[in-house]
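// run 5 | inverse folding | seed 20
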């Protein structure tokens, strides 16, 4: 299930994922939660002032994958990584940091508390990005934690993501 949180010109998506052998070097199936920071594309107003408006959370610019090997069992945190920048929605190489595996939700909260820094690190010229409100940030982190618990319990990420037409990032 895909969840989308929108604030200002930015969106955060949270999705359970099951990947089959995504890393030829390390091998193995991975299950977990994918979090992406996305730019919300401006859309022209449509209809009356009461009409529902189109929301497009298209361009992913940063990604964190809270993944674990399926064979390793829940709680291994052995594949948790992030992609500090994405080009044309494609992730670059996986980046592993100790802070992510030692305190995944604390690390995520720290990262998302400064989206302007994430955009700058990704080389994105975007409208000024303020942080989400503390309550909204807490809701995003709670959601990621809850979905990861559901994945570990076997209730989510049960169907593999089909491979795309091309593999590899930049």
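// decoded
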């Amino acid at each position: 299930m895909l969840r989308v949180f929108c604030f200002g010109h930015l969106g955060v998506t949270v999705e359970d994922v099951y990947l089959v052998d995504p890393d030829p070097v390390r091998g193995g199936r991975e299950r977990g939660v994918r979090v992406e920071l996305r730019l919300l594309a401006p859309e022209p107003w449509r209809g009356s002032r009461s009409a529902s408006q189109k929301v497009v959370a298209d361009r992913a610019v940063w990604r964190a994958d809270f993944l674990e090997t399926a064979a390793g069992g829940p709680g291994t945190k052995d594949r948790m990584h992030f992609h500090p920048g994405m080009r044309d929605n494609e992730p670059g190489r996986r980046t592993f940091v100790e802070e992510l595996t030692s305190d995944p939700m604390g690390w995520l909260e720290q990262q998302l508390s400064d989206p302007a820094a994430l955009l700058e690190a990704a080389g994105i010229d975007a409208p000024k990005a303020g942080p989400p409100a503390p309550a909204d940030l807490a809701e995003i982190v709670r959601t990621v934690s809850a979905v990861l618990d559901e994945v570990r319990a076997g209730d989510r990420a049960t169907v593999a993501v089909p491979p795309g037409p091309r593999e590899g990032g930049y």
